[in-house]
Design a protein that fits this description.
By secondary structure, the chain is mainly β. The chain is built from no helices and 11 strands.
């Protein structure tokens, strides 16, 4: 499960994410992360409600350290996908609209992995980065929701390491 927040108008998303972790080329301390997920959120405004959906996939690299069942990792992550924003007006004097567009971000990911069984574990991670491409909903010239700019994400769940 992943939660993510975009700063500015404070857009928050929550949804499932799948993560695969594999060994890096010729190095036991280097890992490759592949992930995909979808997140949903809602923003409220006096003129109406805004629903936000973001579907994306990511590629990351990490340096891993630790012993026994606990391993820590840190490294860069790139993510690409598509974002949709739909505004629903509360009154007949306002107009709702639907926007969509490409999403792209770069972040630094730090996490901890606890092994449960061979190839299986639980993971918790934090992403801090910048979405350089996304969409933004406005009401009367004010930003109401967006999927661009500074972002913070938190992930927790099961992981399968191949």
């Amino acid at each position: 499960m992943e939660g993510r927040s975009f700063f500015g108008p404070g857009t928050a998303l929550l949804g499932p994410r799948v993560l695969a972790v594999g060994p890096g080329p010729a190095s036991p301390v280097f890992r490759i992360h592949l992930d995909a997920g979808i997140g949903w959120g809602t923003a409220r405004d006096t003129l109406g409600d805004v629903s936000v959906t973001l579907a994306s996939g990511g590629l990351g690299f990490a340096l891993v350290g630790g012993r026994g069942v606990f391993h820590f990792d840190v490294g860069p992550n790139a993510e690409f996908g598509w974002a949709w924003i739909r505004g629903v007006a509360k009154s007949s004097g306002a107009r709702g609209a639907t926007l969509s567009g490409a999403f792209g971000s770069a972040s630094v990911r730090a996490g901890v992995l606890a092994a449960l069984a061979p190839h299986w574990g639980i993971v918790a991670a934090i992403d801090l980065g910048l979405a350089f491409s996304g969409v933004e909903a406005q009401a009367d010239g004010r930003s109401v929701a967006r999927t661009a700019g500074p972002m913070l994400g938190a992930r927790a769940g099961l992981v399968y390491a191949f």
